Structure formats: structure tokens, C-alpha cells
Amino acid sequence: MNKAEAKLEHWVFNSRWLLAPFFVGLLLAIVALLIKFVKQLATLAMQMFTLDDEQMIVSILTLVDSALIAALLLIIGFSGYENFVSKIGTGDHEDRPAWMGRVGFSDLKIKLMGAIVAISAVELLKAFINVAETPWDELAWMVGIHITFVVSGVLFALTDRITERKGH
Q1: Could you write out the DSSP letters of every residue in the chain?
Q2: Alpha-carbon distances of 65 from 6, 57, 60, 127, rounded to whole Å
Q3: Could you tell me the pTM of the whole model?
Q4: What percentage of residues in the chain have a pLDDT greater than 90?
Q5: Tens-digit pLDDT profile for residues 5-50
Q6: Domain assignments of the chain as residue spans, ordered by start
């Protein structure tokens, strides 16, 4: 291998660090989501005695939705960084998540689809709770989109299973 080729390959390999700001940005987005979550939680706490059951459930589902999105961002940030940039050196820290360092691109894709389906389900449940206020055409679109997410997730899983079985 000549010097120019070695230099180019070294440069290409180090270019993976260009992805690091994206993953850091996703983790910073969790901070923004946390601020919004705290605001929603405080609003719920102040209004909990005046809300009817449906409004209370929708408020709680909104908090669940925020938690799911935050967890999704964390998984993408950690896994993306570890898969594409560098291993995160936590050693044998007792709080290291079990999935950390084991989530490959295929696993990340399935986790992403699972989180999207869960978030879609929460949004759909909120719409069903407010069914009197949700136009039928909007509800139909939401159901169709949710089914599309579910089918896409199943197809991703089947594709990965087929690929895994063939040993690729």
C-alpha cells in the first residue's frame, strides 16, 4: 500500500468523528424534552383536582409519550455513537445499561421501529379518548399511519430474521 492510499484511508476512518455532533445533539434534545416534561408535569399537578378523568389520562399519556421519545433519543445517541464513532469507555460500571455495546445497526433499526409504534399507539390512544373531539377522517388517518408503522416494523424484523438465517 502506498503512502497516499494509507493517508486517504486514515482520513476516511477518522471522518467518523463528523457524526459525533449529531449524537451529542440528540442527547441535548433530551434536555429540551426534559424541560417540556417538567412543565407538563407541573401543569398536571396544579390541575389534577379540576381535570376530568379523560383529561387526566390524556395528560398522563402525554408524559408517557415524552418519556418514550427521550428513551428513543438516548438509545439512538448511545448506540449510534458506539456503532459509528467510538466505544463509550464506562468499564464495568454497575449502572451501564445491559444493551449498551450490544445494539448493532439491525437491532437499532428494530428498537427505533418499536419506539415509533409505541409513540404512535400512545397518540392513537389519546385520540380515541378524545374521540368526540377528533374528526373521523383524522382518526382514520391516524389508524392508517399506525398500521403502516406496525407492518413496517414486522417487515423489518422479518427481513433481519431472513438475513440472519442466511448467515450474512
Answers
A1: --HHHHHHHHHHHHGGGGGHHHHHHHHHHHHHHHHHHHHHHHHHHHHTTTS-HHHHHHHHHHHHHHHHHHHHHHHHHHHHHHHHT-----TT-TTS-TTTTT--HHHHHHHHHHHHHHHHHHHHHHHHHTTTTS-HHHHHHHHHHHHHHHHHHHHHHHHHHHHHHTT-
A2: 48, 12, 9, 13
A3: 0.72
A4: 29
A5: 889 888 998 888 988 899 999 999 999 999 999 999 999 999 989 9
A6: 21-165
